[in-house]
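Readers outside the structure-tokenisation community will struggle with the description of the input data as it stands. Showing the layout once, in full, would remove most of the difficulty. For illustration, here is how one protein appears when written out as sequence plus structure tokens:
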Amino acid sequence: MSDGDNGGEPNVAEEFPSYFPSLRIGPSIPHYYGDYVRQIFILTGAAMLVLAPFLVNRAPTLLPFEIGGAIALVCLAALTNPKKQWVLMADTLAAGVGVIVFESLSLAAYTSGNWLAFIALEAVAIAFLIALYFSLKTLRSMMLGQIGKEPSFDEFTDER
């Protein structure tokens, strides 16, 4: 047979490739959540730039730091990968600093009675908190050598 193993029948998978991605809940690489961190950093950087004009009236000295922070977040998002531990440490540090800074700004907006700024800044702080969780989870997996390894039921048993 010259057409392969299927008895001369056309290979349907080659003629009609799947246009729908496989539906998988969870990370594409086992124990690696850097893709989530990357998405959160890009969205948070964009939110920082959108919120910058509203923040400039209350704290004009923060504007260069906010623009620089958005650029740094996008750079970290671009560098995030499952092979470089220093990038994952930088992601964790950036997310932690983001939680502290934006929660402080959010509380200042709350005490001044600016509810719209409070809600927007609180949303950014929560996004940083989620990024902190996923970046720490990935960093822990990297330190334990688990990235890319499928979880198994017997990984916690000691059979010596």
